[in-house]
């Protein structure tokens, strides 16, 4: 998978949770650490990146990005304008580099403005399971983007999980709702089950074990089966049994509607961010 990227140097601007997940996933897949650089303002972040993954680190964004082929924009959305403008000013231009943004809610046209008209920009929406090579990333490139650039970004993100291209930029916000933010939904659900298992008398460790092994088993069943989610659910739900009562309780609480509302709230927030940042 890395043939075409063998000589590509990647610099991550920002070394937070998401950059860490992608870098960890790349290293796990055998991407050479010496080709990866990370910039971050704090010593601690840079030290952790160097210690954990053996990548190059820089305090100065432009120094880190100067000889990169691909610059991954991995700072918080609200910092992107300042960070990008400073970056191109310090590099003396956009350098015709390929920029891959992972930021939620910052439209490509705004990125292009912040990056002084850079012609090669791809947007992506990854998620943190990338760290384990189990990421799910949405990618968007504008009409006219070079196929070579698209394939490079695809190859990078495929190295840490699965990818899907969206035709319209708005699709990136739908990927946020269904995948980028979604690990947190599952964690929340697990937190709730663990909490009640503890209320029922299990110690925290046992409660966690009950939840995590069940979540892992369920996710693995979904992955290995061609059956629909609802069929798999039906297989657990004996007529007149315990699961039926639990599911009825979820339905009474309109769980599906609540999930839909939460996903729409994530999209709305991304739309709002697009106006702000
Ligand atoms: N956390 C997640 O699950 C996901 C995050 N994203 C996107 O990834 C981006 C980063 O998010 P997180 O990693 O969660 O945030 P984070 O807060 O963990 O990381 C941001 C990083 O940027 C660094 N930073 C701050 N100012 C900087 C500067 N001037 N120059 C260079 N680096 C600077 C910080 O030190 C920090 O390491 C955001 O745009 C977010 O929308 C996208 C998908 C999923
Ligand atoms: O919460 C956020 O805004 C980012 C984007 C998707 C996951 N984390």
Would you write up a description of this structure?
- Catalyzes the reduction of 1-pyrroline-5-carboxylate (PCA) to L-proline.
- Its EC number is 1.5.1.2.
- InterPro entries: 6-PGluconate_DH-like_C_sf, NAD(P)-bd_dom_sf, P5C_Rdtase_cat_N, P5CR-like_CS, P5CR_dimer, Pyrroline-COOH_reductase.
- Residues 9-105 form the Pyrroline-5-carboxylate reductase catalytic N-terminal domain.
- The chain is α/β, with parallel strands linked by helices.
- It has two domains: 3-167, Rossmann fold (3-Layer(aba) Sandwich), CATH 3.40.50.720; 182-273, ProC C-terminal domain-like (ProC C-terminal domain-like fold).
- The protein is 54% helix and 13% strand.
- It has helices at residues 17-28, 43-53, 61-65, 80-91, 108-114, 147-158, 170-180, 182-199, 204-224, 229-236, 242-252, 255-276, and strands at residues 10-13, 36-39, 56-58, 70-73, 98-101, 121-125, 135-140, 161-165.
- It has an eight-stranded mixed β-sheet with strand order 3-2-1-4-5-6-7-8, with helices on both faces.
- Helix 2 links the parallel strand 2 (36-39) and strand 3.
- Residues 104, 176, 180-181 line the site of (2S)-3,4-dihydro-2H-pyrrole-2-carboxylic acid.
- 1,4-dihydronicotinamide adenine dinucleotide binds at residues 13-19, 39-42, 45, 61, 74-77, 79, 83, 102-104, 125-128, 180.
Q: Could you name the CATH homologous superfamily of the largest domain?
A: NAD(P)-binding Rossmann-like Domain
The name of the CATH architecture of the largest domain is 3-Layer(aba) Sandwich
Instruction: Classify the fold: give the CATH topology of the largest domain.
Output: Rossmann fold
Order of strands across the widest beta sheet? 3-2-1-4-5-6-7-8
Radius of gyration: 21 Å
DSSP strand count? 8
What is the helix/strand order? EHEHEHEHEHEEHEHHHHHH
Bound compounds, each kind once, are: 1,4-dihydronicotinamide adenine dinucleotide, (2S)-3,4-dihydro-2H-pyrrole-2-carboxylic acid
Helices, by number, come to: 12
